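Sample intake sheet
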Amino acid sequence: MTGLERFVKAKQAEVGALERLAGQSGAFDEGGPLCPWKGERPAFRAALEQGGGRRGLPLAVIAEFKKASPSRGVICEGLSVEEAAHQYADSGANALSILTEKQYFHGDMDYLRRATSEVPAMPLLRKDFLFHPLQVAATLASPASALLLIVRLTPDAALLRALREQAESAGVEAVVEVFDEADLRLARESGARIIQVNARDLVTLKVDRTACLRLARISPPRDGELWTAASGISCRNDLEAAAEAGFHAALVGSALMEGGAPGKALRRLLNGGEPC
């Protein structure tokens, strides 16, 4: 079984639970469990468009709260999402990525609510394996400002468009993730405007930063597109290489979380830190 197949299998119980929940009377009504979030959603794209100029960086940084991963196992279990969000906000993050997948990443949907209660002005990206309209509906019931849609998970431009438009209709922006040129063509066909290039192949779980950078060079961002580089970023040189290739932002997770002091790690990354 490939990594991607494992992730899809892990989400089936969640989808089934959402289907049962959606069938209950009043589920989408005011006060219901799938009622859209009524609070503010800080603009995700606008935060990234500010870039890193105030820190002398050529691009924005999305800092991630991630307790574990399938490739590395447990990364940091002892830090609360509130503390991590507070540290990231104080250390210069433009936005936060919050893992909500339980089985492999030890995430939780409630982390979104808890993070926004700590840093209400910080836009949050829900990072998970989303492929069903009810998963989008559950995201809309949270304080997330953006959600992740993965082309490899939904390799159909019409479905990608439908999920993206469902999210955007409620003010949640869609980050559409690609790995190669074929994915990018589908993402563009679906109308994606925020594109994340993942250096990790979700089938093999192997990371190839050069492939990520090469994609941006051979098929660079078009007008109106905002590109994010993800996976395998651990030092200032990685950020600068991504900016040089044409990326507008970078998502950094494991390298910040693994020491248990993500704010300190982020400041070190932004200020130069250790050479790669």
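Comment: The chain has one domain: 45-268. The chain is about 40% helix and 15% strand.
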